[in-house]
Write the structure tokens for this entry.
Amino acid sequence: MESVQILLKDRSLDSKLRHIAEKVTKKDRISDEECLFLYEKAPLGYLGVLANAIREDRHGHKTYFNRNFHVEPTNVCVYTCTFCSYSRLIKKRSEGWEYDHDQIMDIIRSYDNKPVTEVHIVGGVLPQYNFDFYVDLYKAIKAHRPELHIKGLTPVEYHYVFKKAKISYEEGMKKMVEAGLDSMPGGGAEIFDEEIRDKIARGKCNSEQWLRIHEILHELGHRSNATMLYGHIEEFKHRVDHMARLRKLQDKTGGFQTFIPLKFRNKNNQMEHVEESTATEDLRNYAISRIYLDNFDHIKAYWPMIGRTLAQLSLAFGVDDLDGTIDDTTKIYSMAGSEEQSPALSTEQLAEVIKSVGRQPIERDTVYNELMDYTNYDFKANQDPDVFLQLPVLNK
Ligand code: V47
Ligand code: SF4
């Protein structure tokens, strides 16, 4: 917290900003009003000093990533979220893809010889993907590769299938976990404010339902992430409200691992006219979330979405996680205008991205067990890490 002490010596520092900085040094929680004040008034440099002090206090220079791949069963969807670059395809269903069980298992099997520890399943919502479909899919993945961590779907899909199957959330989530679900990604949260949510994500699970399904998963002893889609039609007060609801649930369950702010990208969707946030605003947002969410261990920058350069900068603004070495199996972002059109980095490349800004690349599994420190790893002299980590594969 030395850098914050230096900041506090500045006599010209605004009294409210001083008070917030003092709170940070004492590890006191900031209020919703103070959070809003940071959004409205705090300079980037000030936010960076505070957020980086918190980040380094918690994790030092450690910067986490994992080796994962994405499975997107479909890019067609019954919903029409205005920010989504998929939803247009419902009218042109034939142009999209809709994988069946066997096709998805083929994708899973195509990673048999690759050192991945996690599959992240995400995509559109369609009637044929019902309760039994997902239960069978999870069971089949676990039968094939038991160690592969399934980070599967969001409350958007679960709400839809449970409702159709006339099953309670409690019963439904229990069955998903029994079938093999390990954790839940943070998607579908968008913005919790009901009025904004209704404008951008009409019809899909509401905020209360999103939070409740996470709560149930946490009660079952499993972890999940939380996202916030920002930089579209919401105002700062809506971001504060969003994070306040997350902080409250986290106080209750402690089940969230990581908060992931998702910058709205404006290509190929119904909000093309909405200007994207600037890099400065993105960094301010990372920093404020790090300062406000005192009960979240990790803040993640999703590098395929913001690009490597901004991701590197974010590491000085509270971020300690860069997601994974993701293959180009995810199309959500390249279709929405993300920086990285074909997002894939080898472990060596990702380690270099992290090391070149003075941080320590740590490979983790989904629940943040540390698997390998690449700080001093000699990629030339040693075996290529992208082939050496082998997980057991059954039923080839
Ligand atoms: O809920 C869709 C977002 C989310 C756009 O938990 C968009 O580790 C910006 O949640 N511009 C799904 N964002 C992805 C997601 C995620 C990603 C990476 C890691 C994790 C994790 C979770 O993607 C959706 C929506 O908020 N999204 N379209 C867009 N045009
Ligand atoms: Fe469907 Fe998800 Fe896109 Fe909304 S964000 S239209 S629920 S795929």
